[in-house]
Amino acid sequence: MGMRSRKVILKLRQAISDYLLQKGILASPYSILIVSGALQALQLISIRLLQKGSTVFLEKPSYLYSLSTFQAAGMHLSGIGMDEEGILPKELKEKNNKSERSILYTIPNFHNPTGILMTEERRKEILQLVEKEQLPILEDDVYGDLWLDNLPPSPLKAADKNGNILYIGSLSKSLSPGLRIGWIVGSQAVIERLADLKMQTDYGSSSLSQKVAYEWLSSGLYEQHLEQIREQLLIRREVTLKTLNEYIGDLGQWRIPQGGFFIWLRVFSDLSMREIYSRSLEKGILLNPGNIYSQTNTAFQISFANAAIEDIETGIQKLGFILRGEG
Predict the structure, then answer these.
(1) Could you read off the pLDDT tens digit of each residue along the chain, which spans 327 residues?
(2) Whole-structure pTM value
(3) I need a surface site. Which of 105, 148, 192, 318 has the fewest CB within 10 A?
(4) Residue ranges per domain, the chain?
(5) Distance (Å, whole) CA 208 – CA 12
(6) CA dist., res. 312 & res. 307, Å (int)
(7) Is the domain 224-323 a CATH 3.90.1150.10 member?
(8) Is domain 3-219 classified as CATH 3.40.640.10?
């Protein structure tokens, strides 16, 4: 790696360090590893830090069930139920076996796929539990900047006194999917181990992408961009909710997401999920069914981030007809 590339990386690490401080996370540039998005972060952690046969606790449902990252590394996934406040501490405690090597993977902010925001009180409960159980946490916060109503509670990492939490962030969801820049925050010793593996894997993330990320974070443009994104997401969320009320009504159940991209829709229908999926596909609607998130009931995820507003309205209208047996 050339001297110029090293300077770019260090400048970006410092910019991320300053950015994280606004979230209450105190992280030196040397405790931050730049990665090519959150997926690479998960891959590096599963290979270098977790032992084969380890248990990964995670919210159920979770998008992680649709990835092979941890399974390919020989990990066992154990789902923990959720309520309106987030993952259930009591169930986590019951399932955790202290004699096994385990880790908790969680998305506290605007969880994928449900959109749930973990409350501040629940975060305190989880932190107390994992400290007592000596259970490390892998906190995925890629949606944290996409709040719509109110600033979310501080990340779990902000309260980490013992280096027990690895924290993942990314610009891919909030800035551009094509800008594959993310980061892992941990102890310097852990970051050095992960950096060694990353160098063996890809010889470093794109220098151009790192320069772009540095300019966005250090210039104030990123915050301005987020304000515009929130305005657009608010409009899209309201259109989606209005159309759901109009065309789905009492055929489904959903919560109002306080941030992120997703609405988790549970439907009440005599049709099976397979039938709903295939009929929707015939109408040009591609659903993310619950079974890819290890959720077997009739539920699926609606994303209001990218589709044109008229397509959101038309898609939900067609879905309503299908659920009523009219489509």
Answers:
(1) 545 567 878 999 999 999 999 999 999 999 999 999 889 999 999 999 998 889 999 999 998 887 888 888 889 999 999 999 999 999 999 999 876 789 999 999 999 999 999 999 999 999 999 999 999 999 999 999 999 999 999 999 999 988 999 999 999 888 876 678 999 999 999 999 999 998 887 755 667 888 999 999 999 999 999 999 999 999 999 999 999 999 999 999 999 999 999 999 999 988 888 899 999 999 999 888 888 888 767 899 999 998 899 999 999 999 999 998 886
(2) 0.94
(3) 192
(4) 3-219, 224-323
(5) 12
(6) 6
(7) yes
(8) yes
